[in-house]
Each structure stands twice: as structure tokens, then as C-alpha cells.
Structures
1.
Amino acid sequence: MSRQCFEYHPSTAYRFIPGLKARVPHESGGYLIRANSDGFRCDHEFSKARTPGKRRVLLFGDSFTAGDGVSNGHRYSEVLETLLPSTEVYNFGLPGSGTDQQYLAWKDFAQGIDHDVLVIAVLVENIRRIASRFRRYQNDQGQEVVFAKPYFTLVNGALALHHSPPERRPIAEDSLPPEERAAVDRGGRFETIRKLINRAGLKEIVQKVTGYQPVPEYGSASNPAWQLMRAILTEWTQAETKAYAKPIVIMPIPLYQHVEGTSSAKAYQKRFSEVGKDLGCTVHDPLPDLRNYSSEDRRKFRFPIDIHPTREGHAAIAKSLAPTIARLLPEI
């Protein structure tokens, strides 16, 4: 999504332009986005007071939650509202963000909002984003530029926040020292090889043959990136419990390689299961439900080129998540 849809924010680095209404070009033919006055892509204005007769769910995530590729009404947040009567879902999804930035969004924008359930949707790729200090984006001319992002490190077991506030202007990547250049999120491993394979149209075949693992960071509980992810989830859930004592759902969102069966999900499933038990949170893993669909239907969960969920993908995620949330919601 073009950065023209966003404005700088000193906590999260950016947010949608408050009140934005725009049509975004896309391979699907384009889609409509609307942002509320807080700068999030949600049709609800964020009210601290409860809406009479309504339950409320707060939902945090990245572009898979914000809904890149589909209009507001076709995202899993809106589908949840149709599956859970008398329930409103506040969507705090922020495209391109990591779980670290989403935690900062919760701290800055969600305080004092009365709610019944908090859902933290973690695209499993976020484990790489939280370990990065800079991210690449396309500017208005289609050129790749680098922006600083807020990030955490672990210092004596505690989270320390850096780049707060982050630099407002883009940074020339070649101006960064080597150790900082290594902290630029480039969207995956083996960047040069990946581009060559993609151009040749062999991506899915190569991944299946080689057993490609897009997120090896989950392979060990002692991996530094996982330790950081675990610390962020721990601090976030503890702060939520202390402030509101409401149920928390952590939902790891699989990549298409996991949904379509070209990569194993066992490692990340084990890590999230462990953290859920330790934190006393509900972990909802939608992958088993998504894998129950036929291979033809699963391929329809993403676009031909764009890996974001289609309408069908959002509907399947909502159908999987709804029963878990329903068990946690109070009676009206």
C-alpha cells in the first residue's frame, strides 16, 4: 500500500491519515479503505464508553488484519461482527507493522477503551519484523526507501525501547553502518535468490521441493528473535491483565506456505502453544481449520500475486476464530 495513505506518528512510526477515504489500486481491481479519526482502518470511531447492548473486541495485527487487498467490509474483523451478534470489533491493524509497533499502538490508542476480549493477531512473519530496526517501503515514485521503526531489545531480561520517536524522514540505506544495514527488513531470507526464482515463476515449485522454511526463527525456544517476541507478548498480556482483567486471545496467522502445505508449521505452533500456557492466554491456531479446505479452495485464500488474504481468506479466518471469541464473550 502506498505511503500516501499514511502519516507520521511518533509512537508507532506511522498510522493511516485520520478520516482517510481512498481507493487503492490492486491486482483485484482496486479496493476501498476508510480510516477513523484515530488513524486506523476501522468503520467504528474508537469510543471509551461501551455501546449499549454491544460486546466489544479489540483486534491488533498487521496488513493481514488491516485488510490489504480488500475493502473494509470484507475483512475478517467485519465478518466476525456478522458471526457474533451484538458484537463490535475495533480493528487496530497497521500494515507493515511488527508486533512491537502493535504493542505500542495498544499503549497509545487503546487505553481506557472498555472491551470484553483482546485479540493479538501475530502474522508469523512478524518475528522477523520485530528483530529489524528499519523497513523498506515504496515512495510515491515507486522507489524503495528505508524508514526507521521503533524496536525493542532485551536488556537483562527486560524490554528496552529504541528509535522512540523514530526519524521522520527516509534514510539512505547505503548511509547506514554495516551493523545497522543488517537490521533492515527486506521481506524474507535469501533476497537475491528469491528475486531470481520469482522472476522465473518457479517460487512454489522450489519451495515445495526444498521444504523451504520461511520462518526458521521459531525452531528453538532460545532463538533471540523468539525470545524477543515472547518478551513483547509477555509484557503486553501482563499489562492488559493488570489494567482490564479481560480474556486475551493470541492468534498466530500462518503464511500461505503453511496453509498450502509447502512448509511445516510445527515449530511456530509449538512456540505459541508454549507461550499461551505460560501466560494463561487462549491461543487460537486457525491453521487446522484452514487446512480442512480443499487445495483448490486454499489457493483462493490469497491473490494470484499478492499473498494477502482475499475475501475468501478473510471469511475462512473469521469462521475459524468466531467460536473461540464466542466462548469468551459475556452474555448480553
Note: Confidence is low (pLDDT under 50) at residues 189-200.
2.
Amino acid sequence: MSDTFYPKIPQNAQMCCRFTVDDNIFFLEDLTKHTEYKSIFNNDYLAMYRRFHEKYGIKVTFNLFYSYYEDSFSLDEVTDRFKDEFIANSDWMRFAFHARHNAPPYPYEHADGKTLLRDFDEITNNIIRFAGKECISNFITIHYVLCPATAALKERSVIGFMSIPEKRNGKDSYTGNLTDDEIITAMQNSINYDEKTQLYYITNDMVINKFQKDELYSELEKIENKKNKFIDVMIHEQYFCKHLEYYQPDAEQKLDIVFKFLKEHGYSFVLADEIL
């Protein structure tokens, strides 16, 4: 184990779960275009998460694209009519930088710090404009995860990054410039700390949309048996979007299975910013 990269599970993270949603932009477009909406919860997607918050106490961080495609609806266009309501719900709902667009894959694999900061600032400044600084999360999930230049975001008070313990097309899905030994450490532990960069790394346990409903319970049992007792689960907005090929009609049911399991097994939901 590296002397400067090691497991670091805060006491207040024990028996906790972090839940995030990647690739978001469409619900913000819906809020903007439906000028008759009186509340953010007139949007079906956000109304669903409020039901889960009331039922299971979930907290959620939405990781945002600037726009889904180049020249499509962008964060610059998002209405600020609901800023006060977003702030009022910031105790359980946050927003964070994810990427400029959905494509190409691995958008920051070869990006320098200047490019990363440009995209981060454009997304973050818009979040502050339409949802308030109270809704900002300083813990980041990079689109496709791989991003060697992450240390540049220390300039913006970022405290850490999510990682996924797998190889995609032969690439280790970890942010930062981790050595092979550090990647092994990250894969074996829920929360790790890198003294060199003073950044945390949370290892994801489950991408919910990758599983069938009848697979979720047994997969959760495997995860729950980990020694660390901190769980990180996520899903993507696309699987709730009927106009996209990714759409899964049972995506909400999948979330209910996961949240119910975690609640029944004694887990509380937290935001990364609360525990790191």
C-alpha cells in the first residue's frame, strides 16, 4: 500500500450510502420550456426523487452536462425562476460538473487543466445562476471517469472524485494519475485519500441501470457484505427518457428496490460534501 494513498473512511460515513445521477440535462430543459410550471416538482423526474426522499430519506447529486449535443439545449438557457426552490431543497439535492457533452467518450482522457477548468467553470457558474451556490457539490464525477488532469480542480475547491473499479476498453476507470498499486487500493476500499493532491476518491459499488430488476437484491447483498460499510450507487438520466434508446420503463422500480434494501439494512443517505 502506498504511504500517500490509503483508505480513509470518516466516522460519519459508516453505514451510509451516497447516491448520484450522471448525464443530466433533459429535466432542466423540461423545467425551462414548460413556462406553466409553478414548482420544480411539476417535472416528473424531480417529483420522483422527492417521493424517494420522503419515503427513504435519499439525498441525490445530479451531475450535469453543459449540453447533451453540441448546439443542443444548454445550461446557459436554463430558467432561474426556480432558484429559491432549489435552494430550499439543497439539504438533499445538489448539482455538480460532469462534462461538456455526452459525446465523445472519455472527453478528458487527454485534456489539459485549462480545458477542464473552462468546462467546469461554465457548468458551475450556471448552476449558481439557476440554483444558487447552496446547491453546488464539490465532489465530482467525471464523464467516463478517466481524467489525469483532475488536480487542476483543486483551484476550484473540489474535494474529490468518484471512481469505477473496472477496465473499459483496456482503460482503468480512475481519475487522476494513480499508480497500479494505488488503483488496487482504490478498488478494495470505499473511500481513499491521496496526500499528494489532498483529494478523496470514492469507489462506486453499483451502476443501477446495468442490472435487471431481479438481479439487484443479490448484487446488493454482495456489496453490503463489504467490510467498509459505506456504499456508493448511481444511475443515469438517459434511462428515464422515453425519447432515447437507453430508456428503461422499470428504472423507477429499480431505484425503489435499491433504496428499500439500503434503508432496511440500516443505511442512511448522505451527500459527499457532508462527510468529507
Note: The chain has eight helices and 13 strands.
3.
Amino acid sequence: MNHNKTGNVFDIQRYTLNDGPGIRTEIFLQGCHLKCLWCHSPDSQAINGELAWFPLLCVGTKKCGACLGVCKAGAISEGRTIYSKITKEEITLPQLDRSKCKKCGLCAKNCYSSALYYTCKSMSVDALMEIIRKDTKYYESSGGGVTISGGEPLVQADFAAEILKECKKLNLHTALDTSGYVPWANYEKVLPYVDLYLYDFKSMFSEISEVLIGKPNGLILDNARKLAGMGKKMQIRYPMIPGLNDQLENIHETAHFCLELGSSITKIQLLPYHKLGIAKYERIGREYQIGHLDTLPPGKVNEYREIFTKYGLETMIG
């Protein structure tokens, strides 16, 4: 094992239940080549992370103001005055000019209240395995294990492979949550160490795919065929975005494609659209483009589930 191998980690969640069988520890790696319109973790897309600004935590420039003094690019200045629910008084917030920001990270390192923070941190394989080992009893009792997610974890394929390799040395069940949009060579690095692929399908039509995620779907479908051809187990995840990819034609074509992949497909997981990530867009200074969309009614989601079920595909919601 390369104990010193490090990578950029976006988040770590323990005791998760929806990203593979049993109780799991989920490691979210930073970086993704896609720009899905509904992405609920836009701050996971940039490989080196994003500078995020959460004004609710700020104690004001008079009590702190450390960010004003350390920014050498002149990207931070005095901003508006608000009433703080934290300090119960009026405070002056700093103002961040992202066009001047050099992403040096000094403001985040010196922010007393963590109102300014970076969305990822560098961690070693050894440090992650220390966390994973703490939960082995839960994996054993529930049939769980470890899921590597993202972002797109195979943007950091070498790092992901090292983590997965160590998990298999402990005889842990492993899952990889992937968009499919990486070169096949990246999959080859992890093939011996992955028990289950949580594989995203967004649209069977390439022109729609380019609108939804910023890329055509050819590579995604080709990689799925290759994994199926090797007998790898895949749980297909289908985010249902109203008016964008929930057309009946797309759903039927997705079901047909899943049937073509044969026994590699263990189940279909429908993921109804939600707006839980909107605040994250605000924190990193990006616009959420589909905030006008409503969530799908439960009855409509069940209707779509029935379509997949009629094709003989085991299908779950959420």
C-alpha cells in the first residue's frame, strides 16, 4: 500500500444506507467532468475545490475581519451591514469579489468562524482507512461496506484504486458511484476491487445529454457495455428531472438498454428531482439554472417505476 498517496476529499459520511447494500461508509472524492443542471453538490466539481462563503456563520469584520487583512489580491472588502442571528447584533459582512480571487485559501485558513471555507481537503489513503476500520462491525452485521463516490471518483482513479484495494484486503464489500464519463483506462485501474457499480444514466439521446450534463452520452453508454461484457454488477441510477429527461420515450429506451446489458443489472434506482443543493450554488457564487422546476408528484414517480418493472427490471425509488 502507498500510505502516502493523497487525494482531494469532498466529504465523508458514515452509516449511509442508500448507496449500496447494508450500512456503509461513503467517501466522496473531489472532481467531475460533468456539469449536470440539477447537481446537488456543485462544490464537488472542481478538482481542487471551491472557496465557499456562508455569511450566516460570519461574526462580522469588527469582531474578526481576519479575511480583510490576509487577502493579497484585494478580493475581500467591507460589505453590507446586517442583523446577525448568531451574535444578536448588527454586523458588517465582508464582500468577496470572485473575479479578483486567486484561490490561495488564506482567507479560509484565517476565518475564525469558518464562514469562508474550502470545499475539499487533502487526505491520505492511510487516514481514510483509519476511519473505515472503525466501522467494520457495522459492515459485518448489515452486509454493508464502503462506497467511493464524488464528484466523479474516477477523476482521481489512482487514489480511488488505492482505497478500494485496501478495502478488499479487509474483505469489505465495495461500491463505486460513477457517472460513466471517464476514459475506460480509469475503470481498468479499479476493476479488480469493485463489487458493485452505482452507474448513472441521464438520457439515452445524446443531444438531450449535452443539454443536461454538458457532454454527449456515447462514452457513458460504451463504458456500461464494457462493464456488462465483463460481468460486472451494476445498479443503474436514473435521476428524474421533470420536463428534461422524464419523457416516456427516454424511459422506455433506458429500460431497453438495461435489458441489453443482461444479468449485470441488479436493479434500477429512480432518483426524483429535489432542490436541496440550491444553497451550495449561492455559497460558491454560481447560479442554479433550473430552480423553476417543481418536484415530481409521488404518483408520477410510481408510474415511471411501473414502466421499468413491466420490463422485468427490479426498480426502487430513492
Note: The longest helix spans residues 157-169.
